[in-house]
Amino acid sequence: MKRAAAVFLAVLAPAIAFAYPNGTPDYVTDTGPFCASCHSVASAEYMAELPADRAKGEVAEIKHYGLVRMPTPPSPYIELANEEKEELIRKAKLIDASSSVTLEAPKRMKAGQEASITVKARGGNGPAICVMLVDRASRFQARPVSSMGWLIQGAPEVRGQDGKPQTGWLDKRASGTGRNLNYITIADQRFDLEKKLFPEGTVTYRVKAPSAPGVYTMAAAFLYGTENAVNSAFFQRPSGRILFSGEVRIEVE
Ligand code: HEC
User: How confident is the model at residue 23, as a pLDDT?
Assistant: First the structure.
């Protein structure tokens, strides 16, 4: 039984590993964190619009570890021994505890004024991480900042774990189309839990403030994994994560 499952996985792995566990290599466009429906979230507060028990069901303790410990199908973890399950949970908790994302933005701007906004993310287990610039820390309802009138000016500057600029993600855009995306994947991430080496990256967006004065909120969404591409090739696993930066308030006058 175990063997049959392994063969089945080996056949499927190349196709699936190409998709979600390495991020989403083909969705080179503006998007929001709603797309990562399989990921667990860092906090139930990201779904204030949902009934409390549904929101709580999205946090890692229940959505991820609950499924890891579940002894029956549909858990994709039933092949694992209890010690392996606990080890997987121990590692995921350490990764979560070391994962963070921050957003730096001006507090006050003139309508139509340009400024730089910087997102710094660290954590997950690689080989890729991704960030999005959105209007709110909301798992299902956050919108790309452009929906609120913030225009991203040109290609964001992306720096990887080594601090060097990387353009691989934006180079995938069809030629002649804009590179001013809110969704950025930062690739080539190394990970070593024992050495506390975590994926890391910085994205600097140049934005133009909306033309309508008002108080706007903005947040960075950070998406990462806690298992690894091989283990989670069976991609119903809820081992992905969504973490938001604090919401920043920007007064546009
Ligand atoms: C079918 C379930 C599923 C959906 C839908 C999904 N993901 Fe994931 N995602 C996963 C799994 C499984 C992993 C692997 C997590 C791990 O390493 O433990 C993952 C990992 C990731 C990672 C980290 C990659 C890595 O190298 O570990 C990123 C970034 C990511 N997803 C972004 C997205 C985005 C953006 C969307 C929406 C467009 C999305 N995901 C939708 C299941 C999903």
Answer: 87
Average pLDDT over every residue of 99-125: 98
> In 158-191, which positions are buried (b, 16+ CB within 10 angstroms) versus exposed (e)?
bbbbeeeebeebbeeeeeeeeebbbbbbbbebeb
- Ligand 1 in reach of 23 Cβ (< 6 A): yes
Angle at 84 between CA 189 and CA 91, to 5 degrees: 35
Q: What is the pLDDT of residue 150?
A: 98
Residue 67: name the closest of 91, 99, 47, 39 by CA. 39
Per-residue pLDDT for 229 more than 70? Answer: no
- In short, whether 182's Cβ falls inside 6 Å of ligand 1 is no
Biggest CA pair distance of the chain: 65
**CA-to-CA distance for 191 and 200, rounded, in angstroms?**
10
To test the pocket of ligand 1, the residue of 9, 12, 20, 232 to mutate (highest count of ligand atoms within 8 Å of its CB) is 20
Residue 13 is predicted with a pLDDT of 41
- The reply to whether ligand 1 has any atom less than 6 angstroms from the CB of 20 is yes
| Atom of ligand 1 minimally distant from the CA of 35 | 37
Which residues are CB-neighbours of 35 under 8 A, at least 6 positions away?
24, 27
**How many whole angstroms separate alpha carbon 117 and alpha carbon 104?**
6
> Residue holding tokens 């994962």?
99
Cβ distance 207 to 153 under 8 Å?
yes
Contact 123 CB / ligand 1 (< 6 Å) = no
Q: Give the Cα separation of 41 and 38 in Å (integer).
A: 10
